[in-house]
Design goal:
Elements: H1 7-10, H2 14-35, H3 37-46, H4 67-72, E1 86-91, E2 101-105, H5 106-122, E3 130-133, H6 141-153, E4 156-159, H7 165-174, E5 179-182, H8 184-196, E6 207-211, H9 217-227, E7 230-237, E8 242-248, E9 255-257, E10 262-267, E11 281-287, E12 298-304, E13 306-307, E14 319-320, E15 325-326, E16 331-333, E17 336-338, H10 340-349, E18 356-363, E19 366-374, H11 384-402, E20 407-411, E21 426-428
Parallel strand pairs: 3-4, 3-5, 5-6, 6-7, 18-21, 19-20
Antiparallel strand pairs: 1-2, 7-8, 8-9, 9-14, 10-11, 11-12, 12-15, 13-14, 16-17, 18-19
The structure holds 5'-O-[hydroxy(phenylacetyl)phosphoryl]adenosine (DLL).
5'-O-[hydroxy(phenylacetyl)phosphoryl]adenosine binds at residues 92, 135, 141-142, 211-214, 233-238, 242-243, 300, 302, 322-323, 326.
Length: 432
Amino acid sequence: MGNYYQEEIECADRGQIRAWQSERLVEQVKFVWENVPYYRKKMEEKGVTPEDIKGVDDLYKLPFLSKADLRDAYPYGLMGAPKEDIVRIQSTSGTTGRRVIAFYTQNDIDIWDDCCARAIVAAGGTKDDVVQVSYGYGLFTGGAGLNGGSHKIGSMTLPMSSGNTDRQLQFMEDLGSTILCCTPSYASYLGECVEERGLKDKIKLKAGIFGAEAWSEEMRQDIQNKLGIKAYDIYGLTEIAGPGVAFECEEQRGMHVNEDHFIAEIIDPDTEEVLPVGSYGELVFTSITKKGFPLLRYRTRDICVLSEEKCSCGRTLIRMAKPMGRSDDMLIVKGVNVFPSQIESVLLDQGYTSNYQIVVDRVKTTDTIDVYVEMAAENFTDNLGKLAQKEKALVAALKSMLGILVNVHLVEPKSITRSEGKAVRVIDKRKI
Ligand code: DLL
């Protein structure tokens, strides 16, 4: 049981952090060159050798990896360690093409658990906490990652997995869970149930660690109020480790990247040019300690901004803002770029729930976009005049945010299916 607030690393001088990163990067590039022929070939094609990489300043010379490379190299082409050293795989849901499979050595798992332990400690966790892990277990990284982090701290861990809401609430009450880990969508649903069943005074939750999907500040407020907790964001992706690549501290102003294991860059997604810190662009990660699946310059497709400003929590680890969405989540409707997160932000701002669905279609040659959003029980009305008035107000608010006409449908409470994992927010019928 260690101390997972590692001040000497998390609050180190930025020059020191860069020096550690440089040292690890140089070693990692050599390792990949020798052990991953797929990437070596990419380096050769670009005319780069390990001797060209002397530190972080040379990172830009390395080729990128993308989801397409992962598919090409499927299943073993990017594995770095011999098969006998691999102890685990995790995988993505594979909703958009072939599954991604990531490999871990025991040391990779230990590092990953440490990263998640840091996240739990940053959310106030100690060995006295009861950590309810309600992310899915199995191939998805959510359950395994937070479970491992909670064990490292020595907290009592409830490996609930997602679903079976009655049992979740019963354990939460009977065992006095203090920290809840799940997707924000599921947290929101659990919050709704806690309110309805009058459980707020019976539960002991103090914090929640929510990630795996985009969620707005307004949704954070809503979850915090419903569950009576402080809600912390956590970021990660299967290709790089799983949850714990970055985590939020008590300031709740962006997620600190675990820079002793991952180097973050922001690039222009079109030109692939590296952008200065503070610019919006696509997040790219380089794994500098992982051996089972050592990805260099992996393009995440998450659109985000980094900040090097020292955080008032004392940590100097670079911070990433909440990703505003994935470049592949972005909808182009009537020629305009629309992120589902922009719509969510308007809905919550106008007092609606985070239970909504966006349906995009094409009628003849014209795109249409419809938003179905539930009314909160206390605002529910079936008076058609009042409904039309409310819908009109929402149409105007969405138009001012997006610049296009969105058809709004206010629907009854509980009529949109709840999600126990990542929510399905968008149905794009143009692609069906
Ligand atoms: O979602 C890992 C994870 C599990 C993170 C539990 C946090 C908590 P994947 O299924 O591979 O891995 O999906 C990765 O999810 O590229 C982002 O687009 C999105 N994502 C993850 N965390 C956040 C977050 C896990 N905090 C993809 N905010 C990433 C916004 C997030 N999007």
